[in-house]
Design brief:
With about 325 residues, this protein is an alpha/beta fold. It has two domains: about 180 residues, Rossmann fold, CATH 3.40.50; about 60 residues, Ribosomal protein S10 (Alpha-Beta Plaits), CATH 3.30.70. The chain contains eleven helices and 13 strands. The strands form three sheets. It has a six-stranded mixed beta sheet, sandwiched between helices. Helix 3 crosses helix 4 and helix 4 crosses helix 5.
């Protein structure tokens, strides 16, 4: 399967003025984004995500390495540009414009005119569920509505690739769910999405593959099932005595959280369910439920970044 986005040893160094230290924002990044997938591009602030996105968009240039988009190394060509839709974090649009006016403006920038432009506006507004508010001034839009119209703007040229920076940050749970459903719908209809986000639960629910960046270096890369390999057992118990929990912790069973007289216990990988239940029984702990549990993307992220930080300290 041919990659939609391919980087090879992509690096970016910001040279310091006045004799200061250069900043190595990105170090030999080898990244592959496949057609028809949602790729989650993750990392702490300052890890190099925005630098990568700016280079993919042609806003800044690499210090070394190569970028190939849709089979072309000439990423500044109009053909490539037309096939990339971009939604920046905190996108701003003038409040005195109506939703459809914004789309008309951006459509004209892409060379759309007349009936073709109006037809495309109708399509993207329907896709993002904004038909009811297309003629409303932006000053009357909620944050979720602004995000939808921003997504419609990214779709106006009918691009093959969407690059979205924090598409659900700051939205309420209902708006996040609605945006998430739209993104999954776009993927299912053949679009390729690269999403940079700190909302790890959101991207875990819809992403096919993930890359985790730290200090400009890609630390983890692959599909969700291959990366989220740590599996254990979760046990819910009722009114566990503190002394009993302390004994269980000595055996490796740790308390995850506790509220309202109940607690959730985490059984370490390698300990059998039978042994864990016997330990609980020996401490007269009342069981409520037992369930298998897979590592979350958030836990993978924390584990990966933590390991990279520890390795960096040793190197120093």
């Amino acid at each position: 399967m041919s990659a939609v986005i391919q980087t090879t040893k992509l690096s970016k160094v910001y040279e310091s003025a006045w004799g200061g230290q250069d900043v190595h924002a990105l170090k030999e990044l080898d990244l592959t984004v496949l057609p028809g997938e949602i790729f989650a591009y993750l990392g702490p602030n300052g890890s190099g995500k925005t630098t990568t996105i700016k280079m993919l968009l042609g806003l800044i240039f690499p210090s070394s390495g190569e970028i190939e988009i849709l089979g072309s190394k000439d990423i500044s060509s109009s053909k490539v540009k037309r096939n990339i839709g971009y939604l920046p974090e905190g996108a701003y649009y003038p409040d005195f414009l109506r939703g459809e006016e914004i789309l008309r403006y951006y459509g004209k920038l892409y060379g759309l005119r007349g009936a073709d432009l109006e037809r495309r506006i109708d399509q993207v507004i329907e896709t993002v569920g904004m038909t009811h508010a297309r003629s409303r001034l932006l000053r009357g839009y909620s944050k979720g509505m602004r995000q939808r119209i921003g997504l419609a703007q990214a779709l106006i040229s009918d691009p093959q690739i969407l690059i979205l920076d924090e598409p659900t940050t700051g939205l309420d749970p209902i708006a996040r769910k609605e945006i998430r459903d739209i993104l999954a719908h776009l993927r299912d209809n053949g679009k390729t999405l690269l999403i940079s986000s700190h909302e790890l639960l959101e991207v875990e629910l819809i992403s096919n593959r993930v890359g985790i960046l730290y200090q400009g270096v890609l630390q983890a890369f692959g599909d969700m099932d291959s990366l989220l390999t740590n599996r254990d057992i979760s046990i819910n118990v009722s009114n566990p005595p503190a002394a009993a929990l302390a004994i269980l912790e000595e055996k490796g069973i740790r308390k995850e959280d506790e509220a309202g007289g109940s607690a959730k216990l985490r059984v370490p990988e390698g300990m059998s369910v039978y042994d864990a239940l016997e330990l609980c029984k020996s401490q007269s702990i009342q069981l409520v439920s037992v369930a298998p549990r897979r590592e979350t993307l958030e836990e993978l992220f924390v584990r990966t970044v933590g390991a990279a930080e520890a390795k960096e300290k040793v190197a120093q």
